[in-house]
TrEMBL record:
PANTHER family: MARVEL-CONTAINING POTENTIAL LIPID RAFT-ASSOCIATED PROTEIN, PLASMOLIPIN. Residues 1-120 form the MARVEL domain. Its main location: membrane. Forms oligomers. One of its GO terms (molecular function) is structural constituent of myelin sheath. The gene is Pllp. This is Plasmolipin. Keywords: Cell membrane, Membrane, Transmembrane, Transmembrane helix.
Length: 134
């Protein structure tokens, strides 16, 4: 949801005047579409049909890459905010886009942490680990 807000806020400014905002827009659109596709895959439980693919590893790699991309997008978007802009609404939208890019970056970072734990199997408890030993 935050990535969609970044996309909408940047698209509503004069992003074509600044190459930096085009990068933020590209990152937000690409990651929003891929995240939506992964959500549909998990919603329809298609990952069970493609059991050969190590889904926890795929999710961890995707979330880590998305975190890195959103770090660059957040820094780029924050640097492009100019308080002396001749169009006040561009300043407000770019500042809001920077805020939501930061939230999206944090969300992908937290998701990377949890997908790493799922990939390593660190979320299991003593009862589930004892069942497989017999």
């Amino acid at each position: 949801v935050f990535g969609l807000l970044v996309w909408a806020l940047i698209a509503d400014t004069t992003f074509y005047l600044h190459a930096a905002n085009s990068w933020v827009l590209s990152v937000s659109i690409f990651l929003w579409v891929v995240t939506l596709l992964l959500f549909v895959i998990y919603l329809l439980q298609l990952q069970l049909k493609f059991y050969v693919i190590p889904w926890p590893l795929v999710l961890m790699i995707f979330n880590a890459a998305a975190t890195v991309l959103y770090v660059t997008a957040f820094v780029t978007c924050a640097v492009a905010v100019q308080p002396t802009s001749w169009r006040q609404w561009d300043y407000n939208r770019r500042a809001a886009a920077s805020f939501f890019a930061c939230l999206t970056m944090i969300a992908y970072g937290v998701s990377t942490f949890f997908s790493f734990r799922a990939w390593k199997g660190l979320g299991s408890n003593a009862a589930t680990s004892q069942v497989g030993d017999h």
